[in-house]
Design goal:
The protein has 332 residues and is of the alpha/beta class. It has two domains: 188 residues, Periplasmic binding protein-like II (D-Maltodextrin-Binding Protein, domain 2), CATH 3.40.190; 135 residues, Periplasmic binding protein-like II (D-Maltodextrin-Binding Protein, domain 2, 3-Layer(aba) Sandwich). The chain is 32% helix and 23% strand. Strands 1, 2, 5, 6, 7, 8, 9, 10, 11, 12 and 13 form an eleven-stranded mixed β-sheet that branches. Helix 6 packs parallel to helix 7 and helix 9 crosses helix 11.
């Protein structure tokens, strides 16, 4: 459940400004590493849904968020870690890849043999997450098969990227033991690549990714395509993957479109969260004020649209979110 602080406690944390005599509600959004896409998107959404006591209402030209709510984006290890934190009650919500959310709720895939997270609920599908396979331009890596024997970061435990990196390797006839695997966040892997100590790394997230853009501005890189028979076999076995393309010019030195795969980034929560709270958060997510923040705040913000809010959602909607989508005519 979300935490509450009375007005007396709240004043110890607020400087200046008048606050109304109401409870202050905190709502955390688990994201990912600070160099990825989850974290900045989480910050935009936290800003959009927040409306702390004492602030102006939407009608007064102020916040169009949930009255009394302060939301925050929390850096984490990513999808798997966010699901576990929501299940354990240490996060009120978080972002997760569609595949990870589905597996966790059903107790299948990477969750096989573990208790399913039956209370996992969806707020919205946000945007497609592209699988990036970044390589040093001089590493001789032009396909996934070329990773054999190379130093490759698969991302850290608890991340959805690690899950998908293993699937990609499998689709091309490789396993973790076929590469010199390391398990680093993308910014750490990029640092190793600058030092000549890393040949390639995986990252799953919306483009442009900050860590990759910064790396590409400092040294020549290759964005390795994930296509052909290997990609087709992966899509057949794991239907939550979709064909995707990273446009030319997204990263410096990448002059052509690059074919890859993508999964959906979804905002999830627990069935234990109050219906009225999640209704208010969903309503705040899709108002005009939030639209402006998303359009101006991040390249991936522009593709977070209400018409795709339910695309690829394979777990139950939270009742509060469901109520909003029915009222908005997006759900029959």
């Amino acid at each position: 459940m979300f935490r509450k602080l009375t007005i007396a406690t709240m004043l110890a944390f607020m400087v200046g400004g008048a606050a109304s005599a109401q409870d202050l509600n905190f709502f955390r959004i688990g994201t990912g590493g600070t160099a990825g896409t989850y974290y900045p998107i989480g910050g935009l959404l936290a800003n959009a849904i927040s409306n702390p006591p004492g602030s102006r209402s939407c009608e007064e030209g102020g916040s169009c968020g949930v009255p009394g709510l302060i939301a925050s984006a929390v850096s984490s290890n990513g999808s798997v870690a966010n699901v576990n934190a929501i299940a354990g009650g240490t996060l009120e919500s978080g972002f997760a890849q569609s595949d990870v959310a589905n597996w966790a709720h059903s107790g299948t895939g990477i969750w096989e043999g573990k208790p399913p997270v039956e209370k996992l609920r969806a707020i919205a599908n946000l945007y497609p997450e592209s699988i990036h396979l970044v390589a040093r331009a001089d590493a001789g890596i032009t396909s996934v098969a070329d990773l054999k024997g190379k130093k490759v970061s698969l991302d850290e435990p608890g991340s959805g990227t690690l899950v998908d990196a293993r699937i990609i390797l499998e689709g091309y006839g490789l396993s973790e033991s076929d590469v010199q695997a390391e398990f680093l966040k993308p910014n750490q892997a990029a640092d190793r690549m600058r030092d000549g100590q890393m040949d390639a790394f995986f990252f799953v997230g919306g483009f442009p990714a900050g860590a990759i853009a910064e790396l590409a501005s400092q040294m020549p890189i290759t964005l390795v395509p994930i296509e052909g028979e290997g990609a087709a076999a992966i899509r057949e076995k794991y239907p939550f993957f979709a064909e995707d393309r990273v446009p030319a010019g997204t990263y410096e030195g990448v002059a052509s479109d690059v074919s890859t795969l993508a999964v959906g980034a979804q905002w999830i929560t627990s069935a234990d969260q109050p219906e009225d709270l999640i209704y208010g958060i969903t309503k705040a997510l899709w108002n005009e004020n939030t639209r402006k923040l998303l359009d101006s705040g991040h390249a991936k913000g522009k593709v977070i649209r209400p018409e795709t809010a339910l695309s690829g959602v394979g777990i139950p909607l939270h009742p509060g979110a469901e109520r909003f989508y029915r009222e908005a005519g997006l759900l029959k």
